[in-house]
Design a protein that fits this description.
Helices cover 48% and strands 10% of the residues. The chain is α/β, with parallel strands linked by helices and 326 residues long. The chain has a six-stranded parallel β-sheet, sandwiched between helices. It is globular. The termini are far apart. 28% of the residues are buried. It binds adenosine monophosphate. The site of adenosine monophosphate (AMP) has 18 residues, from helix 2 and helix 3.
């Protein structure tokens, strides 16, 4: 497994990378973790990176590339790697490609974790980390009153770059510098979009499926431009690369029948499916007329006049076009 996890801050790259590592025995290589470790050890490089990270900006390419190069040269990476948070711009992607060619370990896939912005904000603002074991929690899903790590009891802390004033900057940086990688890797035939919302286990299942899928040769990839100039992509659990939320388990709210009928009639001018919708609506009107007739017959003591009136009005209903009904 030689893959890159791509996605906005808070999309779940770290969580899913850790799970893939645990199950497949391939190391998670997180540029963020490598940098935080350098900051914590107060190395020269860490001292340089600290302020940049706390401002939500990207650390210079050569610093990050140096860390990644060292990490990939370790023996455990010989059997593969899960890159998490690297590359984050086109230059880094090109440097990575050169490095992987040099060490004879080309990329197999790039998995894009797709999550809507409002959920990203909620996840980032609520994220808390254990300083001892690194376990990640979210205040939105923790039991009420819990403040410590369930592994070792250590008091959880908030990453400085998860503070509300920095989160916006990080998402801006993602849009401007990292999102172009979606198109880049699509063109190379490596990108696989995965719906990143929903239960962790479900997202993991989709990630695994995407990671294991047979590669597509770059020559077979067509990139169609959409309005936003983003490529339109297929993916695991996602019909498009752009926000493909997982359907909620609760029953969908149905549109009122009248509106649905009007919609179907409107659509019928353009497609055969819509014509079918019109037929259904017309037959529904007929059924309604029959029911009205039956009701007229079975009502307790209808006068002859009333019965005739009801039958007449039922015929009128059957004749009306569905779209004209309100
Ligand atoms: P992360 O843990 O991936 O969210 O990264 C935390 C911070 O580390 C980012 O906001 C950047 O400041 C820095 N960082 C992580 N990866 C990179 C990278 N590939 N290039 C530049 N800066 C990075």
């Amino acid at each position: 497994m030689r893959i890159v996890l791509l996605g906005a801050p808070g999309s779940g790259k770290g969580t899913q990378a850790a799970r893939l590592q645990a199950k497949h025995g391939v190391p998670q290589v997180s540029s963020g973790d490598l940098l935080r470790d350098a900051v914590a050890r107060k190395t020269e490089l860490g001292l340089k990176a600290k302020a940049v990270m706390e401002a939500g900006q990207l650390v210079s390419d050569d610093i990050v590339l140096g860390l990644i190069r060292d990490r990939l040269s370790r023996p455990d990476a010989a059997k593969g790697f899960i890159l998490d948070g690297f590359p984050r711009n086109i230059d880094q992607a090109n440097s990575l490609s050169a490095l992987l060619t040099e060490i004879g370990q080309p990329l197999e896939a790039v998995l894009l974790l797709d999550v809507r912005k409002d959920l990203l904000l909620k996840r980032l603002a609520g994220r808390r980390v254990c300083p001892k074991c690194g376990a990640v929690y979210n205040v939105n899903s923790m039991p009420p009153g819990a403040t410590g790590c369930s592994n070792d009891g250590a008091e959880l802390y908030q990453r400085p770059d998860d503070k509300e004033e920095v989160i916006g900057k990080r998402l801006e940086v993602y849009e401007a510098q990292t999102r172009p990688l979606v198109k880049h890797y699509t063109k190379l035939g490596l990108l696989r979009a995965v719906a990143g919302e929903g239960e962790l286990d479900d997202v993991f299942e989709r990630m695994e499926a995407a990671a294991m899928a047979k590669p597509v040769s770059a020559g077979k990839v067509t990139v169609r431009a959409s309005k936003s100039d983003e490529p339109v992509l297929g993916g695991i659990g996602s019909s498009k690369a752009k926000a493909a939320p997982v359907p909620k388990k609760s029953a969908p709210v149905k549109a009122p029948a009248k509106k649905a009928g009007a919609k179907a009639a409107k659509k019928s001018a353009q497609s055969p499916a819509k014509k079918a919708g019109k037929k259904v609506s017309a037959s529904a009107a007929k059924k309604k007329a029959v029911r009205a007739k039956a009701a007229a017959k079975s009502s307790k003591k209808p006068s002859r006049k009333t019965t005739q009136k009801r039958a007449k009005s039922a015929k009128t209903v059957a004749k009306r076009k569905p779209a004209a009904r309100k």
